[in-house]
TrEMBL record:
Superkingdom field: Bacteria
Transmembrane spans: 14-40, 60-81, 102-132, 152-172, 179-200, 262-280
Record has Transmembrane helix as a keyword: yes
Name this protein carries in UniProt: Transmembrane transport protein
Organism: Kibdelosporangium persicum
Keywords for the protein's UniProt record, in alphabetical order: Membrane, Transmembrane, Transmembrane helix
């Protein structure tokens, strides 16, 4: 297996160098920005445009998500298809190295490297989020369920990266066409991530439901400031008009992140299983 790892490094040296360089550059940007945010006096926060929503700081928080997409499209998707297009699979899958053994060496090395780099980016992003929360305080509260904070979790980042790699690999062995595999992987990765974030994430656990009767007093929000609203509206209970709210609370965040990680790892395991099963069926010529 060590020899296969060295072979993988030699064959995939450009991909390894590229994702390592991208992760290193992203890490430097996050660290530098973290120091800039930390050095900003509280009374100047409003005068720094890179501290506002939608500007540089918040775009940087999406670096881990972007890195997962790069791994999926440029590492997982070309892995087998490029061997077929270049006809190098005939030599690579010799009598001494069976296709599944060859694939296992590549998967362990490349996916392992991608996971290590993604964990590094996740830890740096979490540190930046902590600095932002300290500097911005209550003026610019960070929603823990928003993608930039939710996805920065180490388990979630790991699950997304492994899923992306497995998705790209599955399309690679299925299509044996690099451009087609890359396109399908990008659409599948982005679509699945958006579906999880927009549709599934709020419902990993049944939401908390509250109801408050209407009164002449000013309306008091039922959803906590750090919670995520799922639904709300007017509702009559025993003929009394009032407002209901369904929401998730911040103390559930860790549980939600573990649930999402488990879901993505489960799907990734299925995709990897399919890829290994299918590659054993491929013709070597």
């Amino acid at each position: 297996m060590i020899s296969l790892g060295l072979l993988t490094l030699r064959q995939r040296r450009f991909a390894v160098a590229a994702i390592t360089a991208i992760a290193a550059l992203a890490s430097v940007v996050i660290v530098v920005l973290n120091h800039m945010v930390a050095a900003t006096p509280p009374d100047l926060v409003g005068a720094r445009p890179w501290l506002a929503y939608g500007d540089l700081t918040w775009e940087v928080l999406y670096f881990p998500t972007g890195f997962g997409a790069l791994v999926a499209v440029f590492v997982g998707a070309p892995l087998v298809s490029r061997e077929y297009e270049n006809r190098t699979h005939v030599l690579a899958w010799s009598q001494d190295v069976r296709p599944r053994r060859w694939l296992a060496g590549h998967v362990l090395f490349l996916a392992g490297l991608a996971v290590l780099l993604s964990v590094l980016l996740s830890l740096l992003t979490i540190d930046l989020l902590g600095t932002l929360e300290h500097v911005l305080g209550a003026r610019y509260p960070i929603d823990p369920f928003d993608a930039e904070s939710f996805d920065a979790s180490v388990p979630v980042m790991l699950g997304h990266t492994v899923f992306g790699f497995a998705l790209g690999l599955a399309f690679s062995v299925l299509t044996r066409n690099t451009l087609l595999a890359m396109g399908l992987t990008l659409v599948g990765f982005v679509g699945t991530r958006m579906f999880a974030a927009v549709v599934l994430r709020e419902h990993y656990l049944p939401p908390i439901r509250t109801w408050r009767a209407d009164s002449p007093e000013p309306y008091i929000p039922q959803v906590p400031a750090d919670g995520r609203r799922v639904d709300s509206g007017v509702e009559f209970v025993n003929g009394v008009r009032g407002h209901f709210a369904e929401f998730q609370t911040a103390d559930r965040l860790g549980t939600f992140q573990l649930i999402e990680t488990g879901l993505f790892l489960l799907v990734a395991a299925g995709l990897l299983g399919f890829a290994f099963w299918w590659v054993g069926r491929l013709r070597r010529i």
